[in-house]
Amino acid sequence: MHYPARILFQSLVKSFYRENAGALFFFFTILFFIVGDFHGAGIIEYHYSLITGMLENTYFLLFVCFVWLLYARKCAAHVTGILYRPEYAFLHILNYLNKAKRYSLFFFTAVLLLIPVLLYACLIIIVGWKRQFYTSAIGVGLYLVLLCAAMAARHVHQLNNLENITVRPVKKAGWLTRLLATYPVVLLRFVAHKQRFVWLGIKLFTCGILYAISRNNTLTTYDFSTVFWFFNFGIIANGILVYRIREFETSYLTFYRSLAVSLPKRLLEYALVYFALLLPEFITLGKLVPVHLHYNDAAGFALSSFSLLLLLHSITFLHRFSMNAYLRIVLLIAVIQFIFLIFSSLILLSLLFLLLAILLFMFRYYKSHCH
Question: Where are the transmembrane segments (predicted)?
Fold first, then answer.
């Protein structure tokens, strides 16, 4: 690796992976290490089925490409932020290189930043070529080359025009300002800005495994329990987002508690937040009925996921739990689900969780503010 490339690697690539090591580890743990042998479906079979589902379903593949685009945007924002920092002003010396050289350096940087995506895309291309999905395989390859090329062109332009950057005030319409100030949107904006990578990883796992396993269901071989437990594990992982939202509320939104808002309205606002966060799962369930999932089972999945997140949120008002204590509670709830479902229905359990969530919220919301 020659000297300019080594500079960019240390300044841009290494710093990115250092800052996002936790999120990357969480994502790969869920996607590659959690999926074990279950009913004969191991990690290789899971990913092969998942990739086949991407290649067979254009909308699923487009969703994956959109997720890759968001990841590329995150990488590009990291590089842009570093280029504008005074302590990295030494990078401007790269402008003395010719434009082709600068472009090749930033293309190399983009490839290194997108390595997690590129490695998985290679698997998609190999499976696509083997299964004769030639158009999809070639499209995935061209799309990722285009992403790297666009990132490189953007950063070459930024490096060459740093002195011309001006910050213009953003004008927002009155209705938009009011919408962005509503409590549910404030919480969703927090997830979008600070937890988007975690959210995307959970959605990709949950929706991917739901689609991959459910598509094997037919009228003659229908397995409800296997699909539910894999799906429910992804929903339980959403508990991390619940905990982060409550941390954000406790640290920065205490002034909202003094506003004249009724308890039912505040509960409805939280319900809207978790409904929005679960929209990808709801859309996936809608795509699977009635061929691969019965209507009543899909409704049970949706109600179960919604009631579980609302219950986890209400539980946080009992006490300010540490992350370890909170995760133990989540695990206990998962055990209760398993035991209860042996003897009763998913719909009934979901309704009980929903009732318990409402009661806990009503009795503990204001009392928790006194501590």
Answer: 21-39, 59-84, 105-127, 133-153, 197-214, 226-246, 267-286, 298-318, 325-343
pLDDT at 39: 43
HEC-encoded secondary structure of the chain = CCHHHHHHHHHHHHHHHHHCHHHHHHHHHHHHHCCCCECCECHHHHHHHHHHHHHHCHHHHHHHHHHHHHHHHHHHHHHHHHHCCHHHHHHHHHHHCCHHHHHHHHHHHHHHHCHHHHHHHHHHHHHHHHCCCHHHHHHHHHHHHHHHHHHHHHHHHHHHCHHHCCCCCCCCCHHHHHHHCCHHHHHHHHHHHHCHHHHHHHHHHHHHHHHHHHCCCCCCCCCHHHHHHHHHHHHHHCHHHHHHHHHHHHHHCHHHHHCCCCHHHHHHHHHHHHHHHCHHHHHHHHHHCCCCCCHHHHHHHHHHHHHHHHHHHHHCCCCCCCHHHHHHHHHHHHHHHHHHHHHCCHHHHHHHHHHHHHHHHHHHCCHHHHC
Most confidently modeled range among 40-44, 62-66, 137-141, 214-218: 137-141
Both tokens assigned to 130: 């083997």
CB half-sphere exposure, 19, CA atoms < 13 A? 16
308 closest CA partner among 365, 362, 250, 356: 356
Query: What does the alpha-carbon distance between residue 150 and residue 145 come to, in Å, rounded to a whole number?
Result: 9
**Paired tokens of 367:** 């009392």
The residues, ordered by sequence, that sit 6+ positions from 97 with a Cβ below 8 Å of its Cβ are: 4, 105
The C-alpha atoms of residue 114 and residue 255 are separated, in whole angstroms, by 40
Between the alpha carbon of residue 310 and those of residues 49, 148, 248, 341, 360, the distances in Å are: 32, 40, 17, 19, 10
> Which of the two residues, 337 and 129, has the higher pLDDT score?
129
Largest CA distance in the chain: 73
